[in-house]
Design a protein that fits this description.
Length: about 120
């Protein structure tokens, strides 16, 4: 491992910790003053990064950019699905995003990878 490389478990563990940190104030725990910052940070990075890590893109900057775009897309799709189903609830939407982030991070920790390049 070189000085600039980070361990493979960094992102999954960071996603799980950020998920827990954002979930506590949302679902009634202490930290209501920090809730907007925790939730915004979680919502912009964690759901998308949990899924992008499974693609093993290799380029860190590309992975971060794609994760932000994917997070926003997932949030919009889940919101629209809930609105069309007449089941809109901000906490339920947040719970869905928590589930996506935790499942993706769990799969990443388990070593699941999807090849981003075609097989010959």
């Amino acid at each position: 491992m070189t000085g600039r490389s980070i361990p493979r478990v960094f992102w999954p563990v960071a996603i799980i910790l950020a998920t827990v940190a954002a979930a506590v104030p949302v679902f009634g725990g202490p930290g209501a003053n920090a809730r907007p910052y925790l939730v915004l940070g979680f919502a912009l990075i964690c759901p998308g990064m949990a899924l992008v890590r499974l693609l093993a893109l290799g380029d860190r900057l590309l992975a971060i950019a794609v994760s932000i775009a994917l997070s926003i897309a997932l949030e919009l799709l889940a919101s629209l699905a809930m609105i069309y189903a007449h089941l809109w609830s901000p906490k339920a939407l947040f719970a869905v995003l928590l589930g996506v982030a935790l499942v993706g991070a769990g799969l990443d920790l388990a070593g699941a990878r999807i090849r981003s390049e075609p097989q010959p």
